[in-house]
Batch of 2 targets.
Target 1
Amino acid sequence: MPTITLGRVTKRYPAATTSAVDDLDLTIDDGEFMCVLGPSGCGKTTTLRMIAGLEQSTSGSISVDDRVVDSVDQGVFVPPERRDMGLVFQSYALWPHMTTRRNIEYGLRLRRVARAERGRRADEVMAVMDIDRYADRYPSQLSGGQQQRVALARMLAVNPGVMLLDEPLSNLDARLRLEMRAELKRIHHDFSSTIVFVTHDQWEAMTLATRIAVMFEGRLQQIGSPTDIYDRPRNRFVAEFLGNPPINVIGLGDAAPAPHVAAASAFAHARTRGTQIVSGSVGFRPESMRIDGRGEPSAGDGLMIDGTVFAILATGGSWTIEVVADDRHLFATTSVTPTCRPGDEITMRVAPEDVHVFDTAGDRVVVG
């Protein structure tokens, strides 16, 4: 499988005032499952389309192994049919007048593969995707999950060097999405494929990817393993984009800070050894919070904030506890049945290593 390298790639559309993709450096390693994650309009689909050859970059270069496939400066643009890549769209794009078998064989017919070989490959991938019993059905006779499997089988039949998936699970219900995530993990393992998966769903990225590239407003914000992205966000955008409930953030810029802001400011000042972050912020994830009764003895030097329990929400196997600290609502999660009740005065404690400090620009302040 090939390695894909994007070097300072920019894409600007003629009528746009800003770049859809701006100065993007990204390497997708051989056999990697790379998820490109971000909100709508961040440039992730444009990036995928440039890799596929459906869009040409404005500047920069795209290489597959040592072969340049897109470079305005070098006057190179390899069309999509010569890039050895398979693409699955959000809409599946199945031919409505073709049966499952004929849809799967379509790419092979374009490549002038012999009829017997087409049939053999179609049978093979239908068995792998568990859709062989639907071989003679038309797309209108298939469920959303079955159509998704047909679209993936059509791509697998041509055995592409790279699989490009553009939010392929967004049209499925929650149960089918879970099943298809497991299916994609199995495909990646069985075929040892290089996969580039575009999504706005953080949990898809966290459960599928070997590495995640987070984008915002056309620029790469952070790239790393799911654990790195979640536990060590490079900036406040990444920290707030990942997590449900989202990370708790306390701004430190108030002229007359409330007690919870003062506590966060004192912690940040001590934790960063005096780094000037008076207008920055601190963040801590809901699962990092421990809730004790007000005034109970403290253990360690973590962040402590007093508050009042506002609501307790059962989410099936876990609980979300909403706490009011002065005028701010903060959230904690736990897998243990809470002993507190709405109206109880409590103290929230967060271990030092679980508190993230951000400067005025929103960049993470590295402790020490």
Target 2
Amino acid sequence: MTPLKILFIGDVVGSPGRKILSQVLPRLIPRWGLGLVVCNAENSAGGSGLTLKCFEELIDAGVDVMTMGDHVYRKDEVFQVFDKSDRVLRPANYPSESPGPDLALVTARDGTPAAVFSVLGRTFMKPVDCPFHAADRMLERIGVSTRVVLVDVHAEATSDKMLLGRYLDGRVSAVLGTHTHVPTADEQILAGGTAFQSDVGMTGPHDGILGRRYDRVLSATLTFVPSYFDVATGNPRLNGSLVTVNPENGRAMAIQRVSIGPEDTQRILTGALAHPAPPVPPLSGLESPG
């Protein structure tokens, strides 16, 4: 069976994030042989929330599943999105009464079944149910329907993300972090065969403060006068993580950080592809280390 390549795209911020994703992703899907594309979309509408228009832009670009985070309900239109699609996910450790689906069971482009869900961390964030128990509940629901499972852990604390990665090691294909908007250099395959990265970074403008205009953030910080943190515009980058999975056992075979900036985008658009996908190891002999 052919390995499954999953591209997980970090927090899409505003129109600059949507634009670079829409430019690059349709070309990466065939060139990298992507079977599944997941992105965190909770900041895609003006930097906070998701609208129907933004949802449609991301779908048209080739995104298969969208995870959300603590800004899931910032835009009222998200409820229309929930009515339209079951592939936009609220955090699984929100209360059961919370609107929106918390689990996506999908079929990749090559026919491989896969599951996606997200959980919120609890350190430095608003009170929320236990992400570890929520993950257990999701895995019980997934059951034997698929071995390929991707988890978005949307959290402030690196320790929260690392601990969840270890907790789920061997039970899911990948645990990938979002929320801090800063990519980490700790991508690895854990002992049980789960790909992990503390944060895959932000897809959006990098000339500001986590996607917001520098001058607005600085003014509010220095004067304590509230200011609207407009989305920045310059140096748009697409950040994410490319994970190759053995669909037969759900174990990760490879993980690579992805960071595509303006110059890379131009090369991709003109056919001189930057960031070639990593070589895929053979499917035979894929037992996890240890």
